[in-house]
Amino acid sequence: MSDSPLHQRAQRFLSALRHCQVLGMQVQHAGPAGLTLRLPYSQQIIGNPDTGVIHGGAITTLMDTTCGISTICVLEDFEICPTLDLRIDYMHPAEPHKDVFGFAECYRVTPHVIFTRGYAYQDDPEQPIAHVVGAFMRMGKVAPVQRPRESKA
């Protein structure tokens, strides 16, 4: 793990997401080339109790979060960037009793949309569990609250 400013920003972002706290997600690495998060194996994320295989929803959460937080790696200032589109192609199930890592990078930044891609893996990034592509809407810095206009009736 690193203590770089990007790593600290990523950790602050991750710690604000309650569901990620419950799942125990952690920032492994954050830099200009992308972001890696770790999802620890736990009883909470098992999809099949007979085999111990991780539920696909946990992998989806990991990858949506990884892609979303990777936006901080390319933006000068924090912006709210909600998910517009997320596609995950599962290659094979995650092995039981092993942590899962998610890596994402931003490969195109426009004034309105940030495009990301990445993969989930366990032991070897060359053997991904899943590939992901995502699009995130740029909303700028936190928008000021707009008050409704009073009607002149």
UniProtKB/TrEMBL annotation:
Residues 52-127 form the Thioesterase domain. Keywords: Hydrolase. The keyword Nucleotidyltransferase does not apply. This is Uncharacterized domain 1-containing protein. SUPFAM superfamilies: Thioesterase/thiol ester dehydrase-isomerase (SSF54637).
